[in-house]
Every structure is written in C-alpha cells, then in structure tokens.
Amino acid sequence: MRVRLWGVRGSLATPMSSEQLREKARSLLTEAKPEDLASPTAIDAYLDRSEHSWTYGGNTSCVEIAFADQVFILDAGTGLRPLSAQLLADGRGKTHAINLFFTHFHWDHICGFPFFGAIYQPGREIGVWSGRSDAEPLLAAQMSGAHFPVKWGGLPSKITCRQIPEDTTVEINGAKVQILPLIHPDKAYGYRIEYRGRTVCYLTDTEVSKSPHRLAEAYAAFVAGADVVIVDAMYGFLDYHDHINFGHSTIFNFIDFFKETAIGELVIFHHDPLAGDPAVSRLLSDARRYKNLIAPNATWTLSAAAEGRSWDLGDI
Ligand SMILES: [Zn+2]
Ligand SMILES: [Zn+2]
Questions:
Q1: Which domains does the chain have, with CATH numbers?
Q2: 270 CA to middle of ligand 1, Å?
Q3: pLDDT digits (tens, 9 = 90+) for 128-144
Q4: From the CA of 111, how far away is ligand 2's center (Å)?
Q5: How many angstroms separate the alpha carbon of residue 205 from the centre of ligand 1?
Q6: Which positions ≥6 away from 152 have C-beta within 8 Å?
C-alpha cells in the first residue's frame, strides 16, 4: 500500500503569495554558503536539506491510497487535479479501478471533482462512497445550473454512488473499509482503510476539542494498529478558542487520545488557510513538545501534512 498527499489545506485553496515566495528566496540566499552554490549538484543538495525550499502546499483535501490495481481517493478537493494529471501520466487512469471516498460534501472536499479527468472517459466506471445516502445529488449540484459548464447528467463515465453503513466493515476491491461519524456541521465521516495488514486512518473534518473526554476511547479504538493516522488539526491551542463550533480541532486533543495507542505516525492535516509555512511548522514543534510531555513513551511519530509526502507501506 502506498499513500500520497495531494491536498492538505483546509477550507479554501491557498496558493503561495509572491511575498511568501520572496521570503523563502531571501532565507535561502541568506543561509547559502559559497560551496552550496558551486555547481548544479551542490545547489540541488542545498535545496534538499534546506527548510526554505519547499511548502506545505495550498491545495484542499485529497489523499491517494494505491494498492494492487486499485486507486482509492479520499476527498476530492483541489488536490485531485494534480492527482488526475499523475494518473493520466503513469497510465493508471486507464488501467486501474478508481474509487472515491468522501468524508463530507463541503466545497473544499468536492471542488476538484469536476476537474477529475476520469469522469470524462466514456464508459469509465468510478465508485463513489460515503456515509450518506445522498452523495449523488450533492455532487451533481456543483455540476448543474450556472455552477459549471459541464453538467453531471452529460458525463460519459459511469459513476456509481454507494453508502457505507456505520458500525460495519465493508470489503471494497480487497480492502477493508470502516467509517466513523465525526463532529462536523452537515455530517462527516472518518475512514479506516486496511489492505493486507497495512492501515490508513483519515479523520477530517472533526471538532473533538469541544468534548474530548466523550470521544477519546472511540477514536483510539478506531485507529488502533494503523500505520498512518491523518487528523484534522487546523488550530493551535489559543486560536481554537476563537473558532468553537467551526467543526475543527487542535492536534493536542489527538495526542491525548492516542498517547497509549499503537500507531505508526500521527499527521496534522487540514491546515488553516491563514497559516503560512512558518505557522504550520510552529504548530508542529509545539505539538512535538506537548507529545514529549504528555506521551513520552509513545512510539509513534508526529508530522504535519505536506503536498507530495508519501508513505510506502509495502506489500503493494
Ligand atoms: Zn474541510
Ligand atoms: Zn467541512
């Protein structure tokens, strides 16, 4: 199983501004030593190790899970567009089965869907899964009326929307899939996806921070044994208090939840559009300090989601 992040931003796509790019360029130039710039190879090596040469990314939620001849896509935010290009480039867009899994149908999780190349392939079968029974009208709505030039009813592919029941593990093309109701306006569901003993959990968007004690046990049980656990951790400790009832969490609650849970890596996801790279890095370092205090014996690692980050969990 291979996991790759294509969109990690919450709420709204957030392209880097010229000012932010210039700030990175300034830091790179300031910190470079003459030998770092001595040859193209030296420049590449310098860029590889510098913390200023990359960005967390501005595309909204989209995560790829690949195994066997399958492509599972978690949410169809704007990150789906580069994933679509990749599937076309490496041929999987033609050869592999494609299934999309939606946490919910807020704009930031669906607005990449009309730009997904596979939906324009005549006869191409595409599975759409969610915890709701009305996925089809919700997806069709953004490709109807004056919202988008191509209409849902005119798509040449065969899109089949199905509901995943709560409290049941369903088998989809060889993978075990389970959902968890989340705390979010208009309903959202988290996913646990397991293939040949490798497991990814995806828990965005959810506001666990309002009543964490009530949820800790259920969340810990849901992710137990997972290799990668991606969670909505949009806010820091203090800014959460300005965003109560917005449907999002802080990472600190999840660190509490999972302090005694066997997982591989906990991943901060759904970054605040107002948080530039330095702010996300600060949140990650605060979270690591908190983890060292509260869960010094936890064996899992902690990271912040960045576009392009991938995990090769083996046994593909
Ligand atoms: Zn969202
Ligand atoms: Zn949402």
A1: 2-15+56-308 (3.60.15.10)
A2: 7
A3: 999 999 999 999 999 99
A4: 12
A5: 6
A6: 139, 140, 143, 144
Q: Which ligand is nearest to the CA of 186?
A: 2
Residue 185 alpha carbon to ligand 2 centre in Å:
7
* Of 199, 223, 201, residue with least CA distance to 313: 199
Task: Report in angstroms the alpha-carbon separations of 272 from 59, 310, 315.
Answer: 12, 21, 34
Assess whether the previous peptide bond of 205 is cis (omega < 30° from 0).
Answer: yes
Range 99-127 average pLDDT: 98
Q: Where are the alpha helices (DSSP H) in 190-259?
A: 212-223, 237-240, 251-257
Tell me, in angstroms, the distance from the centre of ligand 2 to residue 162's CA: 20
Kindly give the distance from the C-alpha atom of residue 9 to the centroid of ligand 1, in angstroms, as a whole number: 8
Q: Which residues pair with 101 in a beta bridge?
A: 74, 129
pLDDT digits (tens, 9 = 90+) for 204-259: 999 998 889 899 999 999 999 999 999 999 888 778 878 888 888 999 999 999 99
Q: How far is the CA of 128 from the centre of ligand 2 (A)?
A: 18
- Maximum pairwise Cα distance, the chain: 61
Ligand number with the minimum distance to the CA of 207:
2
Nearest in space to 161 (alpha carbons), one of 99, 78, 81: 99
Query: What are 52-84's pLDDT values in tens digits?
Result: 999 999 999 999 999 999 999 999 999 999 999
